[in-house]
Task: inverse folding
């Protein structure tokens, strides 16, 4: 059973300022949550396999289709500056 003093202590540790009415409401809410957890603890889950997700999840990958790539010489035509070896020249941003 959780008390209002427990809620105030937790709020103090969390550096949360609670009004008196808020502390009372949280005490009631936390008691309900802990009561529900207690019900769940009584369930027999010995036959339930542990899972990370309720539904089976699989990655969906698109088919990898090999296509011809762009010609590097054609790409360099669009660059403002290049080094003549197939690389773009850009202003230095890190010193």
Result:
């Amino acid at each position: 059973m959780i008390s209002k003093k427990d809620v105030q202590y937790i709020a103090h540790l969390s550096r949360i300022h609670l009004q008196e009415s808020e502390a009372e409401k949280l005490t009631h809410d936390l008691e309900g949550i802990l009561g529900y957890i207690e019900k769940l603890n009584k369930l027999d889950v010995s036959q339930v396999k542990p899972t990370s997700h309720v539904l089976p999840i699989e990655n969906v990958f698109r088919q990898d289709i090999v296509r011809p790539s762009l010609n590097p010489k054609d790409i360099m035509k669009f660059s403002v500056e290049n080094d003549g070896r197939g690389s773009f020249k850009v202003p230095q941003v890190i010193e």
In short: The chain has three helices and no strands.
